[in-house]
């Protein structure tokens, strides 16, 4: 991993993805840029979100963070993963798939580093949201844990 890799932001990205898919049935982001100070996620969607919807997403993510959920990983076979997950971003030649589980809130294949518990993430704050050409972009930052 890069030396500036941010497990807190990465775990928050997973939680944002879960909240977005639950609310909008839009799937996980197709593009993400994770930085220490501010990050962004892009979703394929048919419209922008309202400020009220943005607050709902923010509250959903923060409620899960406050729940102090354990963040665990498990290695499953490629066959198991193909039955449960979208693996289009998975490299060729992989035998096993690492799955990150955030309590009962999110489960997703991932190779990245994560926190051990959501209590380490800090407050999730949506900085902005915008919509253009079928792409709903969300920018967010985190408070201190």
From TrEMBL:
InterPro entries: Alanyl-tRNA_Editing_Enzymes, Thr/Ala-tRNA-synth_IIc_edit, tRNA_SAD. Keywords: Aminoacyl-tRNA synthetase, Ligase, Metal-binding, Zinc. It comes from Maridesulfovibrio ferrireducens. GO terms for biological process: tRNA aminoacylation. The keyword Metal-binding applies. Its cofactor is Zn(2+). This is Threonyl and Alanyl tRNA synthetase second additional domain-containing protein. Residues 97-139 form the Threonyl/alanyl tRNA synthetase SAD domain. Pfam families: tRNA_SAD. One of its GO terms (molecular function) is metal ion binding.
């Amino acid at each position: 991993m890069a030396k500036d890799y941010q497990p807190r932001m990465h775990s928050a990205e997973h939680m944002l993805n879960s909240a977005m898919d639950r609310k909008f049935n839009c799937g996980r982001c197709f593009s993400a840029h994770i930085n220490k100070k501010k990050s962004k996620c892009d979703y394929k969607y048919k419209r922008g979100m309202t400020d009220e919807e943005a607050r709902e997403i923010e509250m959903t993510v923060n409620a899960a963070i406050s729940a102090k959920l354990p963040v665990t990983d498990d290695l499953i076979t490629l066959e198991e993963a193909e039955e449960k997950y979208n693996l289009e971003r998975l490299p060729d030649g992989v035998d096993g798939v690492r799955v990150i589980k955030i309590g009962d809130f999110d489960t997703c294949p991932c190779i990245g580093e994560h926190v051990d518990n959501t209590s380490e993430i800090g407050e999730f704050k949506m900085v902005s949201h915008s919509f253009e050409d079928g792409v709903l972009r969300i920018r967010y930052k985190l408070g201190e844990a």
